Protein 1
Amino acid sequence: GDSVTQMEGPVTLSEEAFLTINCTYTATGYPSLFWYVQYPGEGLQLLLKATKADDKGSNKGFEATYRKETTSFHLEKGSVQVSDSAVYFCALSGTGTASKLTFGTGTRLQVTL
Amino acid sequence: GAVVSQHPSWVICKSGTSVKIECRSLDFQATTMFWYRQFPKQSLMLMATSNEGSKATYEQGVEKDKFLINHASLTLSTLTVTSAHPEDSSFYICSALLEGRYNSPLHFGNGTRLTVT
């Protein structure tokens, strides 16, 4: 079945540092890939998505590129801020199963001054 | 933006009792809602898909008699954990799909932390 593996946290960075959170997936066909973010005390929010190979999703300075050859969708940001502290979830929806999401375990990011 | 309200945000109950969790779409109609469960340091696991006016579709391994789902209106789905036991303690999250927008992103509630003593 479909699965998502993302790096374990917590990840602790200083403000303005470069961020990478790794995510790899296993799925048949051509899944859509997502990053969701959960800020403290809030629900999950869609951060960005990519629906086909080589697509790059971007939002709020975050980027992720759908790499079919490496089955990866790593999240990156060039300069993190304290306000980016949250839990980040990588997810996929399989071919023909739009909206039925398979999640990774989540990675907690803590950004300090 | 679309808002999903989940209530309660946390609940503590005694073993053997039942607990109801509500998931409401506040400013849109949701034909389909999803219920997830998250154990500490683990993924969100889809439990069931709730469709307004019909029976929920449960994922393999989820006891339908244990986790009762009712989706009686386009804005409300409920999850009832019946005869709760300590192993049911977990974080439960609902999400809702805008009516007719099957490829649109899901909107999530803030989750409910259930502790069974």
Note: DSSP finds no helices and eleven strands in chain B.
Protein 2
Amino acid sequence: NAGVTQTPKFQVLKTGQSMTLQCAQDMNHNSMYWYRQDPGMGLRLIYYSASEGTTDKGEVPNGYNVSRLNKREFSLRLESAAPSQTSVYFCASTLGREKLFFGSGTQLSVL
Amino acid sequence: GQSLEQPSEVTAVEGAIVQINCTYQTSGFYGLSWYQQHDGGAPTFLSYNGLDGLEETGRFSSFLSRSDSYGYLLLQELQMKDSASYFCAVQAGTALIFGKGTTLSVSS
């Protein structure tokens, strides 16, 4: 039982490059989330998926796209990376809404 | 929109009690959660209040007043390992929105 698994753990991109952050959970959770964390800014919600087949924008969705591939997997795509997207990205999942389980994070640098 | 306010920093000594407050503004409120995050780690769930009142889990307690849009996390018998960031979070519809976090520093 791995919980929430994120890949990669570290990534360096050049401005304009694209990449997809992968997230998978094995807890049969309905809802999945993508957050970014910047110093002094807390965790800001990028996109979320309340259930398989649905996705919704969060607080800071610009420059990102998501795919809820199935109940287990929720990916985050940067189509054209910008330095402002340098951040730590966390994926999370929950069965209800009370308790989120987080992945270990992806540290992304955009040069 | 949603907003949460919590102090940015709190300091305390080992064995002391500290309270971290959180005030919020949101529509479609369901409950208030608290998370702990150590440096370099992922946030981990501490507690949840869906109804007014106090919830106790070991050395940690959390309180909610829905009428005041206010809650707090109470940490007792502080230990060095409690040095971390603490986030309050509100359920707004189907999303979970976090505050900016409170950094707790515990000294000996």
Note: Chain A touches chain B through 25 residues (CB under 8 Å).
